[in-house]
Design goal:
Elements: E1 4-8, H1 19-27, E2 31-33, H2 52-66, E3 71-76, H3 78-89, E4 94-100, H4 111-127, H5 137-146, H6 157-166, H7 172-176, E5 182-187, H8 195-202, E6 208-213, H9 228-237
Parallel strand pairs: 1-2, 1-3, 3-4, 4-5, 5-6
Helix pairs in contact: 2-3
Protein name: Alpha/beta hydrolase
Organism: candidate division WWE3 bacterium
GO molecular function: hydrolase activity
Length: about 240
């Protein structure tokens, strides 16, 4: 049984989101590697527009520098999207895979999404008008959130372009073809990623186990009541 665990955070987050989980797993004897992904936390953004493939390659290089020869890979949301891609390409290095509310299925942009992007761009222009410059920052932030600005939390230009790219990359086929044991943890009230669609997809692979958490949202892993560490520890030890 490997004692090495690599954790990939989600979009807009950083390694500190997993500090509590990391501390608890380390107390159980695990060797943890929880990096900031490029463009988040203390890690500089890429110089070019990356996709999931480039992020997976970066993680592979970073893990190699840690000296891990085998490990359990954990990913949340966007981190789960990267992990699914990673597990398909570097399967020989992974002992097991744990996906938490992973962004696996990416649907084509709907007419509504395209319209929302246009509204967002118009909104930015409107706030530049002299008679609206006095609006408080919080008001503008709430309005941007209301009209669905996809780049709301990421003012860096390159990260906006990266986000536009990765939200169109569907990695669901990678999970269907997984050869390593995989545990998928999902909240039934997740409004960001679809549990129902994923269950239908993941049922095609006998190596994948889906565990729904009743009433849990997209970031349920941070709540003590769900005791994610126990599920991780049990799955890693499972023969």
């Amino acid at each position: 049984m490997t004692k090495n665990i690599v954790v990939l955070h989600g979009w807009g987050a950083n390694r500190t989101r997993f500090t509590d989980i990391q501390t608890k797993l380390e107390s159980l004897g695990y060797n943890m590697f929880v990096p900031d992904l490029p463009g988040f936390g203390e890690e500089d953004p890429p110089l070019e527009v990356w996709g999931v493939e480039e992020y997976a390659h970066w993680v592979h290089t970073a893990v190699a520098e840690m000296g891990f020869s085998s490990y359990v890979l954990i990913g949340h949301s966007f981190g789960g999207q990267i992990a699914a891609q990673y597990a398909n390409k570097y399967a020989d290095e992974i002992d097991k895979l744990i996906l938490i509310a992973p962004a696996l299925i990416r649907k084509p942009r709907s007419i509504g999404m395209v319209a929302m992007e246009k509204v967002t761009k118009v909104g930015k222009g409107v706030f530049a008008l002299p008679f609206l410059e006095g609006l408080g920052e919080s008001v503008r932030e709430n309005l941007y959130r209301l009209i669905g600005s996809q780049s709301y939390n990421h003012s860096n230009g390159i990260m906006k372009e990266i986000m536009k790219k990765v939200i169109r990359e569907d990695v669901s086929h990678n999970v269907v073809s997984l050869t390593r044991p995989c545990l998928v943890l999902w909240g039934t009230k997740d409004g960001d990623t679809s549990l129902r669609e994923a269950q239908q997809l993941l049922s095609q692979n006998k190596n994948v186990e889906v565990m729904p958490f009743e009433g849990a949202d997209h970031n349920f892993y941070r709540e003590d009541k769900y005791d994610i560490v126990k599920y991780i520890d049990d799955f890693v030890k499972k023969e």
